[in-house]
Structures are given as structure tokens and as C-alpha cells.
Design brief:
The chain has helices at 2-5, 9-21, 26-37, 41-53, 59-69, 73-86, 100-103. It contains 7 helices and no strands. The model has no long low-confidence stretch (mean pLDDT 81). Helix 4 (41-53) runs antiparallel to helix 5. It has 128 residues and is an all-alpha fold. The chain starts with a helix and ends in a 25-residue tail after the last helix. 55% of the residues lie in helices and 0% in strands.
């Protein structure tokens, strides 16, 4: 991150990738956040894709967010579903709201269909 702050971007990425190869993927995620904050969304998305290839639990959620923001809803849904299938919803430290909360606000069924809004007169309610 010191190289990133010194505008030595290629070196910063080199060391982030080297760290990720040893399982330390948070630096690559930090670089992606930094690049996005600087306005370089294209490079940020590439870094998130690299972080996803190393298994960072926040990466697919951010790639889905980029797709959603670019109005590629189908692509966002596909990647969000992949993130959910991988178990990324359990990751408690997402820096931004995961796009699956926008796509499926009440959840998602095992077959991939959105969970319907629960109504009070729904057959699932029980009188205990």
C-alpha cells in the first residue's frame, strides 16, 4: 500500500499479487478499493477479478456491483449467484452493500428464483 500511495501502481500490484499467491488477498482488495476511490473503475474491476481468482470473499460481490452499476443486470445476477453459491454472503465485512440484497431483497430459493415477499396470510405463518 506504500507503493500505491507513492503512485508506484505497477509495483503495488506486483506485490499484491505475490501476497495473494500466498493467501494474503486483502492487499489486492485494498488496492481495488483505492483505485476505485481514485476514479479508475476499470482497473479496480480488474483487481477485483484478480482477487476473485485467489478466492477473496468480497471480490465477486464487487464485480457483481460493477455489472449492476453498468446496467448489466443479467451479468450482475449471474456473478452474485456465483458469490452466494461460494458462500460469500456469510462474509461479514463487505465494504459496500452486496448487490444480491438489491436483486433479491427477500432472499433466493435453491432453484435461483427470488424468494417472494412474506405476507402475514402466508401459509408459512403458524399460530403457536
Amino acid at each position: 500500500m506504500m507503493r500505491e500511495e507513492a503512485a508506484l501502481f505497477e509495483q503495488a500490484e506486483h506485490y499484491a499479487r505475490a501476497a495473494a499467491a500466498y493467501g494474503l488477498t486483502s492487499t489486492m482488495a485494498d488496492l481495488a478499493v483505492s483505485r476505485e476511490a481514485a476514479g479508475d473503475k476499470g482497473r479496480a474491476e480488474e483487481l477485483w477479478e484478480a482477487a476473485a481468482s485467489y478466492g477473496h470473499p468480497e471480490a465477486l460481490a464487487n464485480i457483481a456491483r460493477f455489472r449492476y452499476e453498468s446496467r448489466d443486470i443479467e451479468g450482475a445476477a449471474r456473478i452474485a449467484r456465483e458469490a452466494l453459491d461460494r458462500g460469500d454472503a456469510a462474509y461479514p465485512y463487505h465494504r459496500t452493500e452486496p448487490v444480491w440484497r438489491k436483486l433479491w431483497p427477500h432472499g433466493i430459493e435453491p432453484d435461483g428464483s427470488p424468494t417472494p415477499y412474506p405476507h402475514e396470510d402466508d401459509s408459512c405463518s403458524h399460530a403457536w
